Amino acid sequence: MGHSTEKSKGTVCVTGATGFVASWLIKCLLQDGYRVRGAVRDPENYEKAAHLWALSGAKERLQLVKGDLLVEGSYDAAVAGCEGVFHTAAALVRIKSDPKPGAVTYLDEYSWSSIFFCTKYQIWYSLAKILSEQEAWKFAFLHSIDLVVVLPSFVIGPCLPYPLSKTAQDICDLLNGGRNFGIHGRMGYVHVDDVARAHILVYETPSAQGRYICSAQEATPQELVQYLADRYPHLQISTKFNDELPKMPYYKLNTTKLQRLGLNCKPLDVMFDDCISFLEEKGLLKRKPEKTPTSSSTPDEHSKDSVLQNV
Ligand SMILES: NC(=O)c1ccc[n+]([C@@H]2O[C@H](COP(=O)([O-])OP(=O)(O)OC[C@H]3O[C@@H](n4cnc5c(N)ncnc54)[C@H](OP(=O)(O)O)[C@@H]3O)[C@@H](O)[C@H]2O)c1
What we know:
One of its GO terms (molecular function) is oxidoreductase activity. The chain is of the alpha/beta class.
């Protein structure tokens, strides 16, 4: 994305506009007074974009145009005349991974995943993210484009698009007792509102440059489900997983660069409270059946100690 050069809120383009992150970003941009041109693959599909048209300010300041990552030149019209571009479009696929354990690693904006590793373990999504970001940096350098990259961890929070996006569906499944989440391994988590706010912050801060990790807190799948089961005992959260948990390197994310710019990410309880109230309002979460005096504990009955205290 390029920096905002004027004080007035001009027109910005958001690619992949119907997506989880993009929809929340568009909500914030409209709230802040921007005119937004959203690029989607099928602007005629009103149903898919209905949640965008329902946003405050959308009728006056949102426009949806066509753009497809796989069609060269198809974003030319979408970005023409825009002061900035928020590029969030991506084909999200489920992750296949089998990484090997390692020592504690501290990751910052200088850290890049290994292309060799991603290829060897067929982690195609991550590989695509590395290669496309590297291309973006080369292109920005050659064409003097002011590029800043926001690197969110796993995004949690209200998901405006329906059907839910893939990662939001994974969380919904987890909250409904699904046992497949372990495949994600140890991850950072961040509120979708912080991801959107981080994008706008780096756009509006002329001194912002390079890459920014945007994440609140890390947790292993086991730590996460135990925390969630303790905090939301009315939900059918399982603390067991179908598969053996992958042995992930114990990394910590260094987020001081974004904090120095003024963004402190909301903690885990806020992101899951917001996510869960949203999913409950939509009727997408199952409650545990009320216990009768004769019913006994289930094998998944969790301990009351939060394991996240040490995270
Ligand atoms: N969700 C997370 O936890 C997370 C974490 C870190 C980074 N990210 C990154 O954040 C960005 C947004 O993620 P998200 O979770 O919001 O994903 P999402 O809900 O799946 O949204 C991605 C959007 O990209 C568009 N898209 C897919 N294939 C496309 C193509 N060939 N050409 C043009 N557009 C295409 C889709 O819009 P249409 O179908 O309407 O065209 C879709 O709505 C991605 O770059 C992702 O890698 C996400």
